[in-house]
Amino acid sequence: MAKAKSIFFCKECGFESSKWLGQCPGCKEWNVFVEEPVHRKSVTGTFLRSMKVEPSKLSEVETSDQARTLIGIGEFDRVLGGGIVNGSLVLVGGDPGIGKSTLLLQMCKELVEQMKTVLYISGEESLRQIKMRAERLGSFKEELLLLSETNLDLVEQSIRSVNPQVVVIDSIQTMFKEDVGSAPGSVGQVRETTNTLMGIAKGLGISVFIVGHVTKEGMVAGPRVLEHMVDTVLYFEGDGNASYRVLRAVKNRFGSTNEIGVFEMKDSGLKEVNNPSEYMLDGMPEDEAGSVVTCTIEGTRPIMVEAQALVCQTNFNLPRRTAVGTDFNRVNLLMAVIEKRLGMRMMDCDAYVNVAGGMRITEPALDLAIVAVILSSYRNRSLPEKMLVFGEVGLTGEVRSVNMADQRVAEAAKMGFTACILPKVNQKVISASHNIKLIGISNIKELLDYI
Ligand code: TYD
Ligand code: MG
C-alpha cells in the first residue's frame, strides 16, 4: 500500500518542503512549518483547460479598457483603480469584524441594481443571517443570488451553472476541496481553493472577490500565501474603537497601489467619507498646547490629521514614552534631536505622542509636526490658529523637503488654513495661487519663533 504522503508548508509564505525545517528559507521566519497531507492532483488543471494553448501576437491581444465595471461606490472604485476588472481575482483581507462582509454585500447591492448577475457565497453565515444583514443595509433588489456552502467543488458547479458576472467568496478560510486531505483554512486548502477560483476567474471571465481573515494568531494560512496568487490585494483596516475604516490596495495588477478609500461604519452599513480631512479634524481642540495639524499623503490623496503630544516631568529614572499612530523609534529619535540641537532637556520628560483619529502614519513628512507638537507641549504654548506644519527632520535638525508639497498646501488652503510651516526647499516650488501664507524653514530652530 502506498504510504500517505505529507508535506511541510510555511504558514507565512507558503514555502514547501519535504521535511520539517526550523527556519523558513523563503521568509526567514522561525517555527512556521506545519505538516499537511497532500494528494497531488493537477493543481492547475482547471486553469489550463480553460486557456488556449497557442501563443498570440501582442497586437492581437484585446486590452481591457472597457472591460471594467464601475461599482458605484466611489471610494471602492478608486481603490480598485477605476472599477472591477472583469475576470480578476481580488482578495479582501482584514481583521475579523472589521466589515469585510458588509462592504462586499454593499458592493453586491450596487451591482445588482445595475442588472448584473451576482452570486454571494458564504461559508460563515446562513442564508438567514445574510438576509438579516442585507435588511440593515437598505432595500435590495430581489435578484441577488445567495449560497451558503463550504465545499468548493459544489461551489464551482454552482458558479458554472449560474454563470454570474461577479462572485463573492466569504471567506476563503472556510472553503475546502475534498481531494485535499487537510482541514479548511490550512495552507494546502487555501492554496488549492484559491487556485480553483483563479481558474474560474480567468477561464470564465468572472470577477471573483475572496474574503480572507487576517489574524496574528489562530489563522493557519498566512495572508502571504494568497497574496502571490491573486491580481489585487485590498486590506480593510481601522481602529477597533474609531468608526472609520480604510480600504487600502497593497497589490494591484490593474492600478496603482497605496490608493485608499475611507468609509465610516454606521448603523446601516458603510458610508463613504468623501472629505477625510474634515472627518479627521472633527472635534479638534482649538488653541491648545500640544496639538498640531499636519497633512499626510495616502496614495495620491492629501489628508489632514492632528498630532498630539503630552510632555511632562517624569517621576522615574527612565522616562516613559509612547507613540500611538506613528513609529515609536522615530519619536525617540526626534526627541534626541530636540535635546541635542535645541538644548532642551528631554531626558527627564515623559512623552506621549498620538496621531488622533486612529490613522497610522509612518511617512517622514510627519517629523516636523512631531517636533512642533512636542515643543508646544513642553513650552505649554500653542501654535497660531489655522496653521499646519509638515516636513522631514534630519539628525542635525535640518528640515528636508517632502514629496507632493503642493498638494498638501492645496488641501490645507481648501480646509481654510491660513498659514503653513514647510521646508524651505519646498516653498519655492509651490504655486502662489493658494490663499495661504507660506513659512519656509531650513532648521528646527526657526520653529521656535512660532511656538
Ligand atoms: P462584518 O462585515 O461582519 O465583518 P467581517 O466580515 O470583516 O468579519 O462586520 C461586522 C461588524 O460591523 C459588527 O461588529 C457589526 C458592525 N455593523 C455595523 O455597525 N453596521 C451595520 O450596518 C452592519 C451590517 C454591521
Ligand atoms: Mg464576515
Account of the protein in words:
This protein has helices spanning 45-49, 74-79, 100-113, 127-136, 152-162, 187-204, 223-229, 276-281, 328-341, 367-379, 405-414, 424-427, and strands at residues 6-10, 16-17, 33-37, 68-69, 84-85, 89-94, 118-122, 145-148, 166-170, 207-213, 232-237, 244-252, 260-266, 269-272, 291-298, 301-313, 321-324, 349-355, 387-389, 392-393, 399-400, 419-423, 437-441. The protein has 451 residues and is of the alpha/beta class. It folds into 3 domains: 1-38; 66-274, P-loop containing nucleotide triphosphate hydrolases (Rossmann fold), CATH 3.40.50.300; 279-450, Ribosomal Protein S5, domain 2 (2-Layer Sandwich), CATH 3.30.230.10. A 9-stranded mixed beta sheet has the order 8-7-9-10-6-11-12-13-14, with helices on both faces. The chain has a 4-stranded mixed beta sheet with strand order 15-16-18-17. The longest helix has 18 residues, at 187-204. The structure holds thymidine-5'-diphosphate and magnesium ion. Thymidine-5'-diphosphate is lined by residues 94, 96-102, 133, 136, 265, 267-269.
